[in-house]
Write a structure and sequence with these properties.
By secondary structure, this protein is α+β, with helices and mostly antiparallel strands. It has one domain (3-108). The chain has 3 helices and 5 strands. The protein has a 5-stranded antiparallel sheet with strand order 1-2-5-4-3, with helices on both faces. A hairpin with a 2-residue loop joins strand 3 and strand 4 (85-93).
Length: 110
């Protein structure tokens, strides 16, 4: 699984900021009103969020997300394993309520 397969589906989004785009890590900032659309795209590839917003993260959620900045109660985590690759995606809402950082990562399973 290449994360570009996922990010190509975001082609019609208005991107507030592109922070990092490479083969195994993408970080962009989108507008909050696009969150539902992005969630639906991620669900098609990764299934439903394993840690929805407003749910306390488990030890496993924290372990998975730790390398990429961690995961807090107000954030969302998607995760799916593809053979020897783990793909995760996280929504990090901003305090201003207007933007959301989206991180998508593909890593070999340890």
């Amino acid at each position: 699984m290449k994360i570009q397969e996922i990010t190509e589906k975001f082609g019609n989004l208005e991107i507030f900021e592109k922070r990092c785009i490479d083969d195994d890590y993408n970080e962009i900032v989108i507008f909050t009103e696009q969150l539902d659309h992005c969630s639906k795209i991620l669900e098609k590839f990764l299934g439903p969020a394993v840690k929805p917003s407003d749910l306390e993260p488990s030890k496993n959620h924290k372990k998975v997300a730790d390398e990429f900045g961690g995961i807090l109660k107000k954030q969302t985590l998607f995760q799916k394993d593809y053979d020897d690759i783990m793909v995760i995606a996280m929504f990090w809402p901003w305090g201003n309520g207007k933007q959301v950082t989206l991180k998508i990562v593909a890593r070999r399973k340890k």
